[in-house]
Amino acid sequence: MFRGVASKHRGKRWLAPGKAKPYRTSGGKAACANVNFKLILQYDGTDFHGWQIQGELRTVQGELTRVLSLLESGKVNVHGSGRTDSGVHAQGQVANVQLQREMTPHKLRNAINGNLQSDLRVLFVDVVANDFHARYSAVSKTYHYRVVHGQVMAPFWVRYAHQEVRLIDFEKMNECARLLLGEHDWTAFSAAQSDAESRVRNVTQLEITHGWDGRGHCDLLEFTISANGFLRYMVRSIVGTLLAVGRGEIDVATVARALATGDRDLAGATAPAHGLTLMNVQY
Residue 40 in contact with residue 122, Cβ under 8 Å? Predict the structure, then answer.
């Protein structure tokens, strides 16, 4: 395994002072009415039109809302830590929902999963303080982007990794990754249209690893990116730019100008959605 690292610090999960510690699905008393439940989710994003409800389209939020509304026998509001785009996967997405119905976390998890298709699962259910919000309480998120580097795309990775067949200069990519660490205005690396009040985000980790993958019989690249928040397309734009630098299509100085000026034309193309996975959210 070859490793190129650019990292300031790794986020750690913590509990705010004065908040009750949640408990897992392994047991515990039945939760009382008006309880705020925290859900840890996994999903294969291939057949979803992203997280957010969009009319009749199948979305993660829409599926959870449908099932929880049935269980609650009424309207519910499901809040996610962020809006993953169509085709993006999640290994550790977080959501929360407040329910009136009395139910243990264990029974709630089983009831939700019993009404979902197999590409979406609730792994854990916690009872948390009423002021916990999956999005606004988050302090950091981590994404992985995977790239199969080779002439043959293994079927095991076709849904979860992008393919790159050209030669890559890993030293140049790592040089550029170090440049992108820290707090910056990410206008050049995000969607043109955004409802974000600010495009300033702090990237605390940008790590690139590559090595032989025995399952796919290929060289597998993994980009690990952590920040206090992400703009739409930000991770995929960073990865697309780093790959362009690795191929020699863009130099590091041009990326620095893109970062400084906010000129999207200076950055690389946005990498495809299916290579991206939300790994975890820190609180």
Answer: yes
Contact in structure between 243 and 165 (CB atoms under 8 Å): no
Q: Is 214 buried (19+), middle (13-18) or exposed (0-12) by CB count in 10 A?
A: exposed
pLDDT at 88 over 90: yes
Residues marked as catalytic = 85
Predicted TM-score (pTM) of the model is 0.87
Name the CATH code of domain 35-128 (choices 1.20.120.10, 3.30.70.20, 3.40.50.720, 3.30.70.580). Answer: 3.30.70.580
So what's the architecture of 2-7+138-282 in CATH? 2-Layer Sandwich (3.30)
Rounded mean pLDDT, 158-172 = 97
CB 54 within 8 A of CB 85: no
